[in-house]
Amino acid sequence: MNFVKDDKMIRIEDLVFEYGWDEEEAAAPVNAVDHVSLEVERGSFTAVIGRNGSGKSTLAKNINALLLPASGRVIVDGFDTLDDAALWEIRQRVGMVFQNPDNQLVSAVVEDDVAFGPENLGVAPDEIRERIRFSLTAVDMYAHRKMAPHLLSGGQKQRVAIAGVIAMKPEIIIFDEPTAMLDPEGRAEVMGIIERLHEENITVVLITHFMEETLNSDRIVIMDRGRIAMEGTPAEIFSRTAEIEALDLKLPFAVELTARLKERGIDIPAGLITERALSEHLLTLWKGNETSDLCPSE
Amino acid sequence: MIRDITLGQYYPEHSRIHRLDPRLKIIVTLVYIVSLFLVKDFIGYGIVLVTVGIITAISKVPLKFMLRGLKPIVLIIVFTFTLNMLMTQGTILWEWGFLKITKEGLYNAVFMALRLVFLIIGSSLLTLTTKPIKLTDGIESLLKPFKRFGMPTHELAMMMTIALRFIPTLLEETDKIMKAQQARGADFETGSILRRAKALVPLLVPLFVGAFRIAQELAMAMESRCYRGGEGRTKLNALKFRGRDALAIVFTAIYMAAIMAERIFI
Amino acid sequence: MSIRVENLTHIYNKGLAYETKAVDDVSFTVADGEFIGIIGHTGSGKSTLIQHLNGILKPESGSIFIGDAEITAKKIKMNEIRKRVGLVFQYPEYQLFEETVSKDIAFGPKNLGLSEEEIDERVREAMQMVGLDFATYAGRSPFELSGGQKRRVAIAGVIAMRPEVLILDEPTAGLDPKSHEDILNMVKSIRHRAGGIVILVSHNMGDVAEMADRVFVMDGGKLARVGTPAEVFADEAFLKRIGLGVPPAARMANDLAARGLASGRVILNIDEMTDFLADTLSGARESKS
Q1: pLDDT by residue (tens digit) across A66-88?
Q2: Quick one: pLDDT at residue A178?
Q3: Cβ burial C67-101 (10 Å sphere, 16+ → b, else e)
Q4: Residue B163, Cα to own-chain centre: how many angstroms?
Q5: pLDDT at position A297, please?
Q6: One domain, residues B15 and B126
Q7: How many domains does chain B have?
């Protein structure tokens, strides 16, 4: 096994993955991932967006060696995914949470499911028990540890799935549209956990269709037809509104509102992409106006 | 709702029987089944009845719940009973045309019916007091010696675990697809057998496609959680023999001795 | 065509220890041509409620009238209900089963016992309504299509039955933003062309606010609120308490109001928000000059 100390958590070099693999990608022509290079910093939060079939999922599955490159390389924490001997090192480091909460839980009891990963890693039973307590507490599901997954809500199931990944002590967690099948409450729960994990220095890669979920990321990567179409901080990305719309994506609410207000002649500085930030600015504008109303002589 | 069907007839309770090592429970159940075939008269059944009664009491499974398990086989019991009653030669008690009941027949019928009833009650005690997942663990552990001869014991156990997990999911899926097709006017309930079989196509095709999708997604999720077969794998709930298990062994031995003694000496 | 639901109650697992009232004494009416949005968190009883409207589920008690027909009556023919009420389930693409798109869409009409010509006409019409070109897609296998296209095929399969009441259970769940938009536009155009009642169950508050004439809020099996989007989405605190929310524009307007900048008007979408802010902020500037 070759291991090269690497300062980057994930290093993707000119990755090509040939035909589509999962259902969504099946309709996509030729290269699902087409000469993609990307580096992900330790402890960073990267959001990946793009229309269905743009290669997001395929890219993600290449990171933990579920899929292997046709050409190019993927290096995770110094391990090359093409190196057979490094496979388990990589999968232990890269946890994955998938879209459908039903189809990723293995066991008929919550705590047994969380134990599944550590069991595969050969962790001692006492240590597993400790990890179950720790990871179920982290997602606020410890009280449900004896329950059957099919009796939980979608959001709860998804939290169990995250706990199952946390219990493997990964460096990176890739979330593949984790909130797509959840109701607003479940979505908020899962997003809260993702942000907490990021704060605790886990490297997060989040694939999503909800623009609002990308706003707190360090960087957004937009995929289109297997290539990286745009890349940058949320503020940079969402300042290029026309390009985003051309990629069939939606603007976050605050960004769209800013654009409309600018058309109406209201001056708003760039980079206010969250509702919170925009509200702050609008309030200052308004208060400024009010004071000037009160003192017309100025 | 379809998803609330109780699986494997497990009765959740915290009794001493529930807490026994599943391997031991499986072995005891097998021993018990053998013992039923050693019983030769009603005194023997007396011993069985007392024993089963005591175990049931300790297990805290309500009698009503247990007898419910007999319902599906009532027909078989009645059939065995009738057959034995009418087919045995001996002293005639009652006769009508070619039908005749003999003393020996009646005795045989009662005897066989009782054997069947005890068989069912005994083995349902196993499933009622053991979580399906523990049962799987137990079977895996008991089959371990056969691994040497190439039996994929871990794989079999994993298959059972996954099956147990996904039965409710598949039932739900079936329910959903059935409703969706009914909303498009599908009729699963009327018509000739041929028509009904044909009507199942709109249900079965999506169900199979769905099952494959589930399998594919689950396999991927398992792989990404480092699943690589039984090699080098630890278990959260390693089965351990405890004091109460030893007690159960002694209890079983005494029971077996009583059955044998009764058979030989009485 | 109108819908009248009276004291509808549905109980799961009746008589068992864990029996639950999934729908609890619900009554409402829907007028002809109305667009109803139903919101509620998972398990609030929305799905159970709508499955009663086309007779898939039978209530414990209460009655449902579609037009003048009581569909909860004992002797009613199921096909009579299904002709009137079309129900598109969640992730409807998972019910596709035929070899070709056109055959799959024809399944419903065929079950209604229509003639070949009639079926063919309806399939063409339905495909056009969901935006699938007949020449391109009719002969293709539905399993080869993309996720968004599969969903359109499935919706066409219900539309082809020409229901007067069309119910859609989260028709945009799991789609990307473009497909989401396409499906919504499709629903709007169907409503425009076919008329009748549309009932949309959704977790997307913005969509409901934009499309519905009235909003039903389900919580714990009960119809907790009924009103226009403006009325229902005015109470953000209540909706949050039951695991829901309000459209982004309303959320921001409420936030501004809480911090002193009250709009004094209903704000549900970005247009209303833009107007309000433009008025307030530039209006003030004009008075300044």
Answers
A1: 999 999 999 999 999 999 999 99
A2: 96
A3: eeeebbeeeeebeebbbbbbbbbbbbbbbbbbeeb
A4: 16
A5: 41
A6: yes
A7: 2
Domain that holds residue B110: 2-130+240-265
Which secondary structure element, helix H or strand E, spans residue C12, and what is its range? strand C3-12
Mean pLDDT of A202-207: 97
User: CB burial class (10 A; 0-12, 13-18, 19+) of residue B91?
Assistant: exposed
Is the pLDDT at A5 greater than 70? The verdict is no
Contact: B226, A91; criterion CB under 8 Å: yes
Going by pLDDT thresholds of 50, 70 and 90, the confidence category of residue A142 is very high
Is the ipTM reported for this complex over the cut 0.90? no
Please tell me the distance from the alpha carbon of residue B203 to that of residue B186, in angstroms, as a whole number: 9
Instruction: Say whether residue C285 is in contact with chain A using an 8 A CB cutoff.
Output: yes
Nearest residue on chain C to A177, alpha-carbon basis:
C174
Residues of B in contact with C97 (CB under 8 A): 201-202, 205-206, 209
Residues B193 and B251 in one domain: no
User: Hey, is the C-beta of B236 within 8 angstroms of any chain A C-beta?
Assistant: yes
- State the count of interchain CB pairs (< 8 A) between A and B: 99
Whether A186 sits inside 8 A of C42 (CB atoms) is yes
In this structure, is residue B143 part of a structural domain?
Answer: no
Q: How does residue A52 score in pLDDT terms, banded at 50, 70 and 90?
A: confident
Residues of C in contact with A282 (CB under 8 A): 256, 261, 277, 281
Interface subset of B 55-74, CB within 8 angstroms of A: none
The reply to whether B229 falls in a domain is no
A184 min Cα distance to partner chain B (Å): 23
pLDDT for B1 equals: 37
Residues B37 and B70 in one domain: yes
| DSSP helix/strand/coil, C201 | strand
Q: Please report which confidence band the pLDDT of residue A295 belongs to, taking 50, 70 and 90 as the band edges.
A: very low
CA distance B8 to chain C (A): 18
Residue B141 in any domain: the answer is: no
Q: What is the Cα–Cα distance from B108 to B85, expressed in whole angstroms? A: 7
Helix axes B243-265, B22-38, angle to 10 degrees: 10
Domains and CATH numbers, chain A: 8-240 (3.40.50.300), 252-298 (no CATH)
Are B57 and B183 contained in the same domain?
no
Same domain, residue pair B220 and B253: no
Pairwise CB contact (< 8 Å): C249 & A253: yes
pLDDT in tens, chain B (266 residues): 343 334 446 787 888 899 999 999 999 999 999 999 999 888 899 999 999 999 999 999 888 777 777 777 788 888 888 888 888 888 888 888 778 888 888 888 999 899 989 988 888 888 889 888 888 888 888 888 888 888 888 888 888 888 888 888 888 899 999 999 999 988 887 778 888 888 899 999 999 999 999 999 999 999 999 998 888 888 887 777 788 888 889 999 999 999 988 888 87
Q: Which of A112, A120, A132 lies at the smallest CB-CB distance from B227?
A: A120
In this prediction, residues C50-59 reach a mean pLDDT of 93
Are the Cβ atoms of C12 and B4 closer than 8 angstroms? yes
Contacts of C43 in chain A (CB under 8 A): 153
Q: Is C192 near chain A, with CB under 8 Å?
A: no
Locate B11 and state its tokens. Answer: 């009765």
Nearest-Cα distance to chain A for C137, in Å, is 14
Burial category of B182 from C-beta neighbours within 10 Å (exposed 0-12, middle 13-18, buried 19 and up):
buried
Chain A residues within 8 A of B213 when measuring between CB atoms: 23, 103
Interface contact flag, B221 A168, Cβ < 8 Å: no
For residue C19, the chain B residues in CB contact (below 8 A) are none
Can you read off the two tokens belonging to residue B245?
A: 């298990």
- Domain identity same for B8 and B126: yes
Kindly state whether C189 is in contact with chain B, defined as any CB-CB distance less than 8 angstroms. no
> Which has more pLDDT, B93 or A165?
A165
Contact A224, A232 (CB under 8 A): no
Q: Are residues B122 and B177 in the same domain?
A: no
Are B108 and B62 found together in one domain?
yes
Domain annotation for chain C: domains and CATH numbers: 3-246 (3.40.50.300), 247-289 (no CATH)
